[in-house]
From TrEMBL:
Stated family: Belongs to the high-potential iron-sulfur protein (HiPIP) family.
Coiled-coil ranges per UniProt: none
Subunit structure, interactors included: Homodimer.
Protein name as annotated: High-potential iron-sulfur protein
Xref: InterPro entries: High_potential_FeS_prot, HIPIP_sf, TAT_signal
Keywords: 4Fe-4S, Electron transport, Iron, Iron-sulfur, Metal-binding, Transport
Residue span, High potential iron-sulfur proteins family profile domain: 34-101
Length: 101
């Protein structure tokens, strides 16, 4: 096998391993820092715009059963895709609520 093909294969192998490492590292970092995030304030401009409340008044709809909520099931405060960098109450609600599939 020519030297160029060996170098090319080695490069592709290490590049793919690097990509996997970056992806896994990013996901682990999100999980590690979830506990360090502040709780969403009702005064937050995005919270006001989406009419967020800490306790849902809409029957059958809360953050716990919304597709935007992430993190560990059962936690009282969890990350939400609509409010990056903030934790929302699992019993909360906002106008961006979408039922989990």
């Amino acid at each position: 096998m020519p030297v160029n093909q060996k170098d090319r294969r080695r490069f592709l192998k290490y590049a793919s391993l690097g990509l996997v490492g970056v992806t896994v590292g990013t996901q682990l970092r999100k999980v590690a820092y979830a506990g360090d995030m502040p709780q969403l304030s009702l005064d937050d401009p995005t919270a006001k715009a989406l009419k967020y409340v800490h306790a849902s008044e809409v029957e059958g709809q809360n953050c716990e059963n919304c597709m935007h909520l992430t993190g560990n099931a059962g936690d009282e405060w969890r990350p939400c895709n609509l409010f990056p960098g903030k934790l929302v109450a699992a019993e909360g609600w906002c106008a961006g609520w979408v039922k989990k599939p």
